[in-house]
Each structure stands twice: as structure tokens, then as C-alpha cells.
Amino acid sequence: MTEADVASLQHLVAWATFAIAFVVGIAMSRSNFCTMGAVSDVVNMGDWTRMRMWLAAIGVAVLGTQALAWAGLIDPAKSIYAGPKLLWLSNVVGGLMFGFGMVLASGCGTKTLLRAGAGNLKSLVVFVVLGISAYMTLRGLFGVVRVGTVDRVAIELAGGQDLPRLLSGGDAALARTLRLVAALVVGGGLIAFAFASKMFREERGNALASLVVGAGVVAVWYVSGHVGHLEEDPRTLEEVFIGTNSTRMESLSYVAPSAYALELLMFWSDKSKYVTLGIASVLGLVAGSATYALATRTFRWEGFQGPEDTANHLVGGLLMGAGGVTALGCTIGQGMSGVSTLAVGSFVALAAIVAGGVAGVRYQVWRVERMA
Fold first, then answer.
1. Could you say which residues of the chain have pLDDT below 50?
2. What are the DSSP calls for 102-141, one per residue?
């Protein structure tokens, strides 16, 4: 393969991811898919409808991703989630920060992009703050603090931290069998829980949204981990996943990619910068949301209501950017893409994000009651 072939493959990975994220953006917009809203609905009203939608999407992602891994088309161990180092404290601290921040910002990083595409100027500001905060946590001041504190607390797992490898004790054949068992238990269990609700079953849009979003995660894993995978890069003679910022296999995630999207805009003339898989997923989601909003005439310009509203969204964006990078992902990055690899750290991060979201909702209720 020549360098020209690599460049063509890079374009294919980016365009394929853009198309997948575009469809996901439409599905999320149409169904009002929102993880922060799901947590808020459960805490404030006891309504599990949107939570079941999220859990069903996770279940679809788990089943599809593990099927690809079982078939040998991708290797979850080559993602940032399922490596041997379990950064459990980073997962917890970052997850709590992200969860609390998404409540203050009226939505997670994914919802921020969806709303920005539909004309919400508040979300556009949150996106910029989130991106800057994320970049500072990747390579800047916050990154120095992260590496020097929470990232120092880790557990080394020689066989990797995804459940099949962890439980097999290094037996490859057993790990392959356990992969199917774990996928059916986790993925199948989440889908069964979602469809146990008659209300959820009766609304066909819920099931369709869950299927599209979960399948989107699986599709990007395939694009990144199979289509864009080279055993030997002609430039470095090393294994490489074409078009990813992490140089590893990637799927949908919206915190670090937001930072890289801003970086590309700021360093556009730098020929070493290009539209990566993550950046393409950001652009695709926004484009999908904007297309749906324009087609349904729901596109509306919306601004801040006052100084307090502005402050909440700024702090929320800051917490989501720093927390999402520290936790290695957001409600989609860790909550779906990460969990689909069955990585222990992803389950820890997901639990922390939900806990942070619950704390954020209760904090807002407390503030409202106090003001009243």
C-alpha cells in the first residue's frame, strides 16, 4: 500500500463516520434522545422511558461489538478502553465531574452538539468551553494535574480489562466463548429490561432510536477497527488505525473529538492536521441535527436567560470537558462505545457519570426550593 492509498483510506474512514453520525444525529433529534434528560426523568418523575431508550442502545452496541470481536473483525483490546491499565480513580472522578456538569449545561456533550445544530446558541458556547477544557485536560494545565494525581492510581491487569479476557485467565479459547456469554448477559439483559415496559414497547420510535444509535456505535467500530486497520503502515512499518486521533481503534465519542475539532479550526493551515474519525463524528452529528431541525421547522435561535443561566452553562461545559477526558469518555464515549467493549473501567465510568448526574439534578432541585 502506498502513501496515496493511505490518504484515500483516511478519507474513506472520515466520510463513512460522518455518514453514520449524520444518521445517528437525525435519530437522536427525532426521539429526543438525551442521557441527562433520562437521569432527570427518573429522579424527578420516576419516568424510565428515556433511560430505557439509552439502556437498549447500550445493549445493541454490546451485542454488535462483541459479535464483531467474536468473528475476528475487530479487537477491543486495541481501543483506549480495554487496555491492561485500569484507571479506576480517573474513571470515578472524571465521571462524577462530567455527570454533574452535564446537568448544569442542560445536556451532555452529545446533546450539546444536537442543540447547537438546531440553533441553540447556549449549546454553541458550551461546545467551545467544553472543547477548550477538554484540550487543556489532554495536553494543557489540567492535563498536568490529571497525570500527576488521579492517573497515578491504577491497577495493572496483564490480560486486559475487558470481561472475556479478565475472566478467562489468559485462555484464548475460553475468552472467545465468554465473549458471547457476556454479550448475551449484558447486552441481552439491557434490551430485555428496556422492553419489559409496555409503555416503551408501544412507542415504536423508542426502539428504532435505540437500534440506530447502538448500531451506529457498532458501525464506527467496524470502520475504524477493520476498514481503517493496517497491519503495517507504509510510512512507519507499524500497525495503525487510519484516521484516529488516539492512533487506536475508536468509535463514537464527543468530548476529546470536540477539542480536536476546535484545534483543526485554529490550525487549519497546518498540513499535518486533517479531519479525523472523531472530528467527522462531531460534524456528522451536528449536520444530522441541523437537517432534522430544518426539515421539521423546529430550528430556533435560543440564547441565555441571564447571568445565572450563563454561569451554569459555562461551569457545566468546563466540568464536562475536563471530566470527559479524565474519565476517558462521556455518556456515549464511555457509556456506549466503552461499555460495548465490556471494559471494567467503562462500567465504573458509566456508574460515576450517572451518580454525578443524579447529584446535579438534586442540586438543582435544592437551589430551586431554596430560592422559593
1. none
2. HHHTTS-HHHHHHHHHTTBHHHHHHHHHHHHHHHHHHHSH
